[in-house]
Amino acid sequence: MGALSRPRRPRLRALIGLTALVAATALGGCTSSTTSSSDAKGDASEYAAAPLELSDAQRDEILKKAFLTDEIKAADLDPTIVQGLEEAGRDYSDEQVKAAAACLDKPTCTIGKGEQTLAILDGAGSDLWRRITRAQITVQATSYPNIGTVIYLQADGNLQTMQANLQTLIARKVTGIVTYDDFGPAMTAAYQQATNKGIPVVAYGGIPGKDATKAVVSQVASDFCDDGNQMAQTTAKMLNNTGNVAFFTGTPGNPQGAGWQACAETWFKQNAPNIAVVNRSNTSWTEGGAVSATTALISTGKKVDAVLYDYAKQTVNIVQTYQQAKQKVPAQVTWTSDNSLLQMWEKDLGTPNEWQLAYSSSINFEGAIALSALMNHLQGKDVPSMLMFPLPFVPAKKGDYVADQPANAPGPTLMPDALLSQVLGAA
User: Fold this and answer.
1) Which of 315, 343, 359 is the last residue of a domain?
2) What percent of the chain has pLDDT over 70?
3) How far is 309 from 333, CA to CA, in rounded Å?
4) Which residues form the domain of 147?
């Protein structure tokens, strides 16, 4: 691992124009998605968060925790992204943490006395990453005094359920929606219905794509194509530009996986032609899916030198499956961080079984940026139609495993430690 250098900072490319989309926000109204945000009903101040003041040093520390590097500065990022990270990393009282924690096993809960209702619409909410991200959004919502209710609906990876859940939120006339879209453009028409009813939508992580700029206020994500480039560059360094690789992602056809895989393969063809993609697998982002996909890959007898996957918690299952099959563990390049994965890597370090690992931050802050964007829109502020943040991949190093944290700890997050502990304890 010592030969691996930190990947270059990803470029913040605007794959989708940074033209601010302003959707109608009058609750229950029936207006065009091109209505100016200045037409939103009510006093804009009612949508504002509690005041937040941070020193430059505090802001830099939040950014370092978010991206696992001190190379990314506030000036590199859109102000709404910085705002979302600051709100995610702000200090929360014990009362706010308790209010958020009490929500996490209920589809509808009360977090305050406000009249506004925030909806979190998730395409597949059963895995740990989604639960942590839900908690991050929920505790952040407690800093907005007029959000009194939070509704959480998740679709278990089923498009029809996702569409039905969205119709439920429209019928309940929620104030606004933040959503993880596992289905890409297939959800665009449904989002447009919400927008036409005056309910603004901001997508994060999984997003509907470039043709949805009139259907949603904004889309928050890393640049999937640049992510693929970064993963490919990191892999090429690990393999000295020669070898076979496998691509793993979650639900079939999800826009995240489709985006990074296409660009990673193109990067290999253009820059490391001796690296071949010999396998593509879907796991539905479940442990069983990861084990099944890895078992199937091993059974083909194909030599695989590296596995690229977009979920570190289940990279654990990939490594374990190789070990149980008494096969050499390929290098792993993965999104997010997982304490048990780091423990496994560190245990094998310096032994004949040593394998290489590179990973990104937990990225649970995506939902926080989405909530900031949504509330800014409700205040009548212009919000970019695309909010892209960088996703550096860093090589694992001794000491990254933290022995006094749970095995399922996701590495550094911006949410309160007490709330994270409760989420991990319930997992």
Assistant:
1) 359
2) 89
3) 6
4) 37-222+364-391+417-426
